[in-house]
Amino acid sequence: QVQLVESGGGLVQAGGSLRLSCAASGRTFSGYDMGWFRQAPGLEREFVAESEWSGTAYYADSVKGRFTISRDNARNTLYLQMNSLKPEDTAIYYCAVKYSSSKYNYWGQGTQVTVSS
């Protein structure tokens, strides 16, 4: 059974940095696309970044140039380095994977990121 566990969230001041991790277990994910999403209070979940199985990365315009997605296939871990954080980045951050699917079909429980002004 696939399990994704996020960590690394917390409270940080505007302009600060955090690094999120997503540890996957149950299967190796080296051949699959993985991504980060976030959901702020009262809003729908939105795309943040994706790491294709090939290593190609995609970002939402709102985080481009500030966030970096990376993966360590040997450790089955996905990362999100977040720099120059803004209060509007406050949200629960989720990692997800497309296992043998064109859509994200496995999700973690999320980690809270709060950015104070």
Write up this protein.
With 117 residues, the chain is mainly beta. The protein contains no helices and 11 strands. It has strands at 3-7, 10-13, 18-25, 34-39, 46-51, 57-59, 67-72, 77-82, 91-97, 106-107, 111-116. Strands 2, 4, 5, 6, 9, 10 and 11 form a 7-stranded mixed sheet that branches. A hairpin with a 5-residue loop joins strand 5 and strand 6. It starts with a strand and ends with a strand.
Give a nutshell description of this structure.
The chain has 117 residues and is an all-beta fold. Helix content is 0%, strand content 50%. The protein has strands at residues 3-7, 10-13, 18-25, 34-39, 46-51, 57-59, 67-72, 77-82, 91-97, 106-107, 111-116.
